[in-house]
Amino acid sequence: MPGMGQGLLANNPIVVAAFQHALRLQVLVVGLLFLIIFGAWLARYVVTHPDVVDATPNLCTPTEPAGRRLLRIAFGLLWILDGALQAQSAMPLGMPTQVVTPAASTSPVWVQNLVAHGLTTWLRHPIPAATSAVWIQVGIGVLLIVAPRGLWSRSAGAASAGWALIVWVFGEAFGGVFAPGASVLFGAPGAVLVYALAGALIALPERSWSGGRLGRWILGGTGLFFVGMAVLQAWPGRGFWQGQATTQATPGNLTAMAQSMSQTPQPHVIAHAVSWFAKMDAQHGWAINLVVVGTLLSLGVGLVVVAFRWRPGMARVVVGLTALACLADWILVQDMGFFGGVGTDPNSMLPIIFLVASGYLACVRPLVAPAQNQEPSDAPPRSVALLNALIVVGALGVILFGAAPMAVAGINTHTDPILTEALNGDPGQTNQPAANFNLTDQVGRHVSLASLRGRAVALTFLDPVCTSDCPLIAQQFRVADQMLDPKSRKHTVFVAIVANPIYRAPEFVTAFNKQERLNGIPNWLFLTGSLPALQQTWAAYGYQVQTLSAGAMVAHTELAYIIDPSGRLRARIGSNPGADVQTAASLSTLLAQQMRAVLPQ
Amino acid sequence: MSAKVRTLTVLALALSVAACGQSQPRNGTATSTPSLVAPLTSAVTTATAAWVVVPMGRVTDPLNTFWQLFVRTSSQQKWALVTPRGVADNGGLVLSAGQTRDAVVGIRPSQLLTFTPLALTHNAGSTFTPDLLPAALEATPDSLATSSTGAAVAVVNSGTGIAFRRALGSPWTTSTNISTLGTSSLGRRCRPTSITSVATVASTTYIGVACSRPGTLGLFELSRGAALPVTAPVPAGQRASTFVIDRLIATNNNLEVLARSQQGSSASYVLLLRRASTAAWQHASTVNTDGSLVSTSVASDGAIAIVSRSPSGEPKGVIFRPAKAAWVRMPAPPRSAVVVALVGAGLQAIAADGTQFRVYTYQNANQTWLLTQSMTVPITYGSSH
Predict the structure, then answer these.
(1) What is d(CA A198, CA A68) in angstroms, rounded to the nearest whole number?
(2) A5 touches chain B (CB under 8 A)
(3) Over 70: is that where the pLDDT of A58 sits?
(4) A2-11, A141-150, A432-441, B247-256 — which is least confidently predicted?
């Protein structure tokens, strides 16, 4: 019915089923890829070392700087976790509507426009985009873990940084740094910005890790960041000094965040902890913010002091306290980040802990250059190196396996039909004679279905004075026509029949065509006729038209019919254009698909 | 202080400065800006019928606001719902009532509709014939004027143009527009911001505009497709005010002009009468008002009523000017009253609240409003989403 349009829910069963089906197939492909890689390695290993088949490969070389190794493995695991989170069933539709759009909603208009531009690809192709994100992130994670040294390892760091920046801009709307109310407690300046920093550190030449200087920069930089965030947290008028005086009062930002997080579907014990913190902050908002500011300031100053005047004991204490504070925030405020069905990462506190720990390790266990002419006694066996190399190739393959469909999706401007199918159901396939009609077109010519024999017909019913859905459906008919190649267009006709018993005169048809810029389209017909002729046609197609109460639009069913060149009805398509542009655009792709299917090859 | 410490201090200060940019914007102080055009909520009384146009439903949600048309004929003495069916009217209704029981209703386009369905009646809304204006009708109560021959003139395209047709069934053509009006001598003095109203009086079409320059009343006469300035007198004390012509009323072959003048925060209404036979102006009267305008009501005998609302939202008062008499301030109408209909020699306040339509008749004896009719209007919520 026009006027009863609805948006798609993130857990739409048709989209979820399609996403899970695509993922299952892709898991098989990726599994097969690694099976082939392992098989190749095993075959070569058995041929060259038949007596040591049970050797356990050591994937890491012990001489890699400890701080770098921690970053590499920790962020590799985080990327794999993020990839797994991207595989949640609500992601294809939930990611744009429940994650990205809300994240950008309070940012300036230019940020919203930039994010919307990036989101268009995802919205047009939700299944390929969601599966791509899974494999790109899993691939980067695996690559980080299995490539410990050398060019591939540094490339993995660069890939991690690059992808993280893309996610930071288009997935996190710059981490909300341009929005009011940003706070390090909530994740500002964005978890993936820490991923990007870690990736950049991994991508540095290994000699950068010598002498502990890099470690001190990491600690000092983090300390400075904490000091800045403390100032931001303490800034008056930003809503962090208030709790919630009464249940009717507007809560402070921190209370509101904790209250919101406690409502997220999650294990009871965590919900209880977050809920407890929300109550505490509601009652003692000022005091808690004072503690938060004090903690941030103390830790920030401590890290800066440690960075400039290295004292191992003090460094251990400051880094340990930083980790504790971050953990507390991660659980009590950030709610671990990944619950609720559309969580994309564990938020910023775990990455910050790993970053600080990496800085500490870089100071206490810096890279020591091997003595000249000394053979590295712990170099991996050749077979292990070969396995590493093959796994690196496999990981690269996984990244490409994700990136390629996303690249293709980026250049394909036609929205996938899955969205309209999700809203309207699968097209009902049939094969029966289509009912004839005898009406007149927009220029007064008599048109019957029989007169259109030899051409494929896309038929629908439109109210020329409709204010909502009918213009959108007409536009999708126009776009579907444009999607056909010139030869097919000669053998197709797009037909609408008036679905209004009152405003049905030819001048309304003409005005509608002008409004929708349909006048110049040679294979577009908008038919009308006497009320009995229209009623007869509506009835023949099982079409319901109802005049509602005063002031309301005429209600009618929203269906399109595909009739083949021999006059047989082949498909019934729900034509509700939905509540967003992409769902409407999806209808045109489906119409074009169905029209091609009934044209002779 | 070492160079490193200085660098860190500068960076910390920079972060603090960035924090300033992060602070939440303060709530702006609400200021009341007077509406540039008169609300669509209105009433028209002719010799044979009284009509009211009111918004009903959930009026804070445009897609669930459904405008309704009610009529009270002199024979029936009861209000009846006569809103044309078959088209969504969330954009509002504009009524042009004839002297008999005929009327034309413009159903303003909303959402994706860009042209204006019309509905014609010759029997006070018992039946309607569909018609079409191929442009968007302006949202003012006098944006459509029709004659018994089917000739019509309309303010279109957000108050920037005039469309007209010579007779029923003949094509609509564009006439003048606001740019052209602005180039005339009157237009240069007035600098019009929008066309607000049209009226046809004894085969002459008048165009009223909102002026952005003080001291000028923007009134034009349409002659053979061209707009000619009509010099209207401005009251002596109001030469520093800017004027918006809210209503143009045809009264027994005379033109009545209801203009709102604004000077600072004070507003007043000026009512002028132009005799068609002599083209002479007669300055009728001026009345001060405050609060925001809720509705205007006019009658073919020259009577006028204005409902204004206080900033708190309650109807503040009704200012009534009987035909050829002085302005009278009436007692405040009941809560949710939005328009006053001029019925015979009396007044009826119309309250539209959700689906409830109530009529309160003014009792001269005890100076109160008495509930005399109520009805429930069927509304299909959600039908325009």
Answers:
(1) 9
(2) yes
(3) no
(4) A2-11
Q: Which helix (H) or strand (E) holds B208?
A: strand B204-211
| A4 pLDDT more than 50 | no
Contacts of A551 in chain B (CB under 8 A): 56-57, 66-68, 83, 88-90, 379
> Which residues, including other chains, have CB under 8 Å from residue A260's CB and lie 6 or more apart?
none
Number of residues written out for chain A: 601
> Which of A220, A235, A552 is opposite residue B19, by nearest beta carbon?
A235
Q: Does A239 touch chain B (CB under 8 A)?
A: yes
A553–B88 CB contact, under 8 Å: yes
Q: Inspect the interface and report whether the beta carbons of A551 and B385 lie closer than 8 Å.
A: no
**Phi, psi at A399, each rounded to 5°:** -60, -45
Q: Which of A239, A505, A553 is nearest residue B87 as measured by Cβ atoms?
A: A553
- What is the per-residue pLDDT for B11? 45
- B85-126 tens-digit pLDDT: 999 999 999 999 988 889 999 999 999 999 999 999 999 999
Cβ–Cβ gap A508/B132 under 8 Å:
yes
| Secondary element (H or E) of residue A46 | helix A13-48
Cβ neighbours for A43, distance < 8 A, ≥ 6 positions apart? none
A467 touches chain B (CB under 8 A): yes
HSE of B3, CA atoms in CB hemisphere, 13 A: 0
- Strands (E) in A385-436, as ranges, are 428-433
Name the residue with higher pLDDT: B113 or A375. Answer: B113
Decide if B86 and A502 are in contact by the 8 Å CB cutoff: yes
Asked if A549 and B90 come within 8 Å (Cβ–Cβ), the reply is no
Long-range contacts formed by B358-363: CB under 8 A, 24+ apart: B358/B334, B359/B79, B360/B333, B360/B334, B362/B330
With an 8 Å Cβ cutoff, is A531 touching chain B? no
CB contact under 8 A, B19 and A180: no
Model confidence over A538-589: pLDDT tens digits?
A: 999 999 999 998 899 999 999 999 999 999 999 999 999 988 889 999 999 9
Q: Do B11 and A224 touch (CB under 8 A)?
A: yes
Are B24 and A180 an interchain contact pair (Cβ–Cβ within 8 Å)? yes
Secondary element (H or E) of residue B198: strand B192-201
Mean pLDDT lowest among A182-191, A443-452, B53-62, B276-285:
B276-285
Residues of chain A numbered 36-55 and touching chain B (CB < 8 Å): none
Q: Enumerate residues 497 to 526 of chain A having a beta carbon within 8 A of any beta carbon in chain B.
A: 500-503, 505, 507-508, 511, 514-515
**Test the A interface: residue of B6, B115, B120, B131 with most A CBs within 10 Å:** B115
Angle between helix A213-234 and A312-332 (nearest 10): 50
Ordered structural domains, chain B, with CATH:
136-289 (2.120.10.30)
B54 contacts B41 by C-beta, under 8 angstroms = yes
Contacts A–B by Cβ distance under 8 A: 147
Confidence of residue A437 (pLDDT cuts 50, 70, 90): very high
Structural domains of chain A, with CATH: 13-172+380-413 (no CATH), 210-369 (no CATH), 418-598 (3.40.30.10)
Which pair of structure tokens corresponds to residue B218?
A: 């923007």
pLDDT at A270: 83
Measure in Å the smallest separation between the Cα of A6 and chain B Cα atoms.
Answer: 8
Question: Six-digit token pair at A400?
Answer: 């490409």
Spans of chain B below 50 pLDDT: 1-34
**Element at B251 (helix H, strand E):** strand B242-251
- Would you call A465 and B113 a contact, using CB atoms and an 8 Å cutoff? yes
Q: How far is CA A592 from CA A27, A33, A208, A527, B223, in A?
A: 31, 36, 57, 21, 53
